[in-house]
Design goal:
Length: 216
Amino acid sequence: MSTQVRFFRVEEPAEGLRSRKKAKMRMMIEDAALRLFAEQGYEATTVEQIAAEVEISATTFFRYFPSKADVVLVHQDAHMAELRRVILEFPAEVSDMMAVRHAMLSVWVPNIDPEHTRRSSPAVATSSALRSRYDDLSRNWLEGIAQALADRRGIAEPDDEATLTARVALGVFIDGIRAWSKGSCDDGVEAMIKRSFDILRTLAADWARPSSKKHP
């Protein structure tokens, strides 16, 4: 998935002047890094360059982020537990796909950071290192959703149906992000993700509709 979705950072309440200063510095580092990534590419940008942009040392940079890649991908699993909880709590008589759709729209979509999603996606798309990290993250999402669907149906491990449902739902979600980030219409990200799920529903209905045509 070369299109990357970026969620808002989950922070502890910034109480006190020191905490507020740390939160502000973290945002400054992210902004500087994403600007440099856009200007000269992720691979060509060094931690030292990012640090210099905000007038800190490289040592100080690592107090905020474990690595350069974490500026783009940090805390992306923060909403996974809540997503799984909502999937499990959705009415049992409703399909697995509808449960995942509902969870994505109610948990993930409100937490998408639109500006950083648009700014960080090019960095992921042009860096093999970041794509590898994001692929690992996507696998974590896939496994987490599939396991939630297995738990929902009372089975210990995800079967083929749970895994395929999770894979398709993730693909539809990312397709909506991709369409929105390309500016293919004036709708917001939520509307684009809903549109992608509506297309899936139409395709499923077409698949189930009897056809008079004979197929080889």
